[in-house]
Fold this sequence. Notes:
The structure is a homodimer.
Chain A: H1 5-12, H2 16-23, H3 32-45, H4 51-58, E1 63-69, H5 80-95, E2 99-105, H6 108-117, E3 122-126, H7 130-134, H8 138-141, E4 146-149, E5 161-163, H9 165-178, E6 184-188, H10 196-210, E7 220-222, H11 227-240, E8 246-249, H12 252-264, E9 274-276, E10 293-295, H13 298-313, E11 323-325, E12 328-330
Parallel strand pairs in A: 1-2, 1-3, 3-4, 5-11, 6-7, 6-8, 8-9
Antiparallel strand pairs in A: 10-12
Helix pairs in contact in A: 1-2, 1-3, 5-13, 9-10, 11-12
Chain A binds a DNA duplex through residues 2, 4-6, 14-18, 20-21, 24, 28-31, 34, 49-50, 52-59.
Amino acid sequence: MRVTLKDIAEAAGVSIMTVSNVINGKRARVSAETVDRVRRIVAELGYVPNAPARSLAARSSLMIGLLVPAATEDSLAISPHNTAMLGHIERGLRRHGYHLLLRGVAERAEIAEALRSWSLDGALLLGFLDEEIDGLDKAVIGTTPVLAVDSYSTNPLTTGVRSDDFTGARLAAAHLLDLGHRDIVFAGPAFTDVGVVHERFLGFRAAFDDRGLSEMDCPIEIVNTTYDDGVGLARRLRSSHPGATAVFTTADILAIGLIDGLKDAGTAVPEDISVVGFDNIDVSAYITPKLTTIAQDIGGKAAVAVDRLLAKVTGQPSPDTPHVLPVQLVERASTTGPRDR
Amino acid sequence: MRVTLKDIAEAAGVSIMTVSNVINGKRARVSAETVDRVRRIVAELGYVPNAPARSLAARSSLMIGLLVPAATEDSLAISPHNTAMLGHIERGLRRHGYHLLLRGVAERAEIAEALRSWSLDGALLLGFLDEEIDGLDKAVIGTTPVLAVDSYSTNPLTTGVRSDDFTGARLAAAHLLDLGHRDIVFAGPAFTDVGVVHERFLGFRAAFDDRGLSEMDCPIEIVNTTYDDGVGLARRLRSSHPGATAVFTTADILAIGLIDGLKDAGTAVPEDISVVGFDNIDVSAYITPKLTTIAQDIGGKAAVAVDRLLAKVTGQPSPDTPHVLPVQLVERASTTGPRDR
DNA sequence: CCACGCAGATATAGCGCTAAACCGACTCTG
DNA sequence: CAGAGTCGGTTTAGCGCTATATCTGCGTGG
């Protein structure tokens, strides 16, 4: 029924190992004629190697796990930014001959389980909280190469790749300040004293410091990063921060919801309120007004993540400092000077 | 180093099979005390089953392949609609204890290879061309349950799930006709005499027939379904179809590009040209004007696909007619009567 | 009191593949 | 011309797990 090495071996009149060697390109110890013959029979019989068997014997599966945080609820499980990363990562891995096991992770414990069960050759952790990454010690990870993307964890086992969030936020805030805004709201998810959001907050503050505006009040709005949360924020913004003339958000999708919510409430963007996003997802260029945002190099981040992980997988020592990708301000139409119509 | 069944067995003073039975919940032949003891030791030693070994021995991997068409070029490999499906499918599979192997497929032959190599328990084919699905005979598929999503192929091996494309297009065209449009362009990718796009074309024409407008000219614009293609279409629309007052597109992302292109060229949407999309991806509600489109029940489609596939996987006979999900017109702001300002 | 069934296990035999050791026949080479 | 390679393989020994017998007491009914 299923064609195995044995079948090929019998048909070709050689041993099973010879066939294996041919298939794996270890032609060193096989004559050219034998290679040809085996190749022909493989094609004839439509042989396809059995991956589990290969994994079991070789202790390598050519499979890379991609773990992404997933909500247990019914909301969109994968963020737009992670979705964009996903496509690039899949392509990158495929080009290198690896396969991708996609796994949404709802609870912390699942990370460990996912890592160890599938004898994965390696795993990429996309956008987890730093404390989750911190918790991954040798006992949990075992010997699986793991790399965290977008993490500020100092866990040496997961040293990975991220964007320059600090500079991004600083650029965004500088842009708003230079336009003349002074009452700027920082909108993003709850953060502790470390992590992506915290870093963006620091960058945001730094722009004020740069201009000697350290004493200035910077209202913070804690809000999740979905479209609906943006709409919700818009609803309460006028009452909670009546004087605000600009909002810096930590995610484009949040900014987009915010803009739509503001427009629905009759607040003009950018005339009444300027909005800056972060990520530069595709959609940001499609909306009206086109979103001013901080562009992350998504393709670059994915490529570095894949390269670094595969290097680790093939046993090369990996650097112990994260690769930080530059970001840049993409000035579009959602920002202008205050009362500047 | 790695904890195996053998280690547990030794520690518990039982045979390896007893441990295996406990782990797989076949407690029928194991006493309650033994179950407890083994359970405790499993937890203590942090045992996690080795999936490849299990797959090899049990000829079942708990892995479902998700194959999506992928461009070889650098463009976004996964369409927005498939991306949306992806999230729902992953969640559905995870809830049932299955894992997801995501695989972009650039060439036809890869489908066969992907299907057979990973002793997948089943596979979902997302949005492939009908002729590609047709080519999947017993010899290619083997015994792997396979289900095609969004296909009109009559291949009984892949009978799956799709939306009611015909009705969707008919609704869209009817909507435009009812608004008074007569010169409507059909914009979508090249199609043959079968398949999603063809079906939408038939539905589009049917709306004309319904109104006794069979003789009416329906210009067709062959265009791929990306944002950029939409922009490109906008550029040539005025010259190629100067009289057109409305465009029906086969994908939202194409419609969005078209709208942006038209706006850039100074053509007002919907005042000068009405645009209807298809899919109702999230973005369609974010743009300005909000896109009138045909909503597919993405969550429903994903759920049915998962349910049907898993039924097949567990050996239940599967229906030989595709599950067709209803669609509905979502009337938003990108359509209005011609010259109706 | 003896086959007989049955709970509670265990022993055996692979699944399909690979790593590593081994082997015979040649070819060098000093 | 003996010892040391090389070539072109083959054999052996699993990887960690599961399916399928098989075994061992022990209570039972006839």
